[in-house]
User: What shape does this take?
Amino acid sequence: MSAVLIFLALLASIIIWWMAQQRLTSKPWLEAEKVSSFSHFTRSSIATEKIGLGVFLAVVGALFTLFISAYFIRMGSDDWWAIPIPRVLWVNTAALVVSSITLELAKSLAQQGDDETMKFALLASLITGIGFLVGQVFAWRELVSAGYLLADNPANSFFYMITGMHGLHILGGLLVLGRTTGKVLQGKTAQQVHLSIELCAMYWHFMLLVWLVLFALFAGWANDFVDICRQLLT
Assistant: This one.
């Protein structure tokens, strides 16, 4: 149980740091120039959409944290056999990293008003994101063909369930990213879609972070890290 708490504390720290980077913890009421002046109120510099997405991502982070904690607890049972990691997951991880980088580039280009280059960056992010999702299906098929069925082993069940849940979130992000990319292809300017791109990047980076944690978990690296932390604490 101590190992689970250590890992959850680490994951919570990463989420809190990421949210702080998005200035979701800022206090706009402390930024007023004159406290005694009540002639007008200034709105928060953070878009309402960003705050809403931040709350949603916090819920998503809590959901995956519960999955991870259940994974750690269940893996201590006698009927647990580790599942091999398909090599295609390395390619999928690289695709998601590239997708996140190109989307961040698209956000930067939108701020600069470079409509043409931004369009290509969005398309690259969309294509690599779809590639990640297709690669996950290939990973499932590879495991099934090797005999690692859903109900044969708790490790199998957790792998399919957690990667499936992550895949659903990626699919939802792709739908929004595809809609934003479609608007750009139809002639929308960078100024008109800047907020949408920024929200997509915010969501995409978070899902990349979640996937990296999950990949470390399935590969066994997270277990080794938790064991090291537990030895240092004891």
Remarks:
- The longest helix spans residues 154-185.
- The chain has seven helices and no strands.
- The chain has one domain: 2-21+45-233.
- The mean pLDDT is 82.
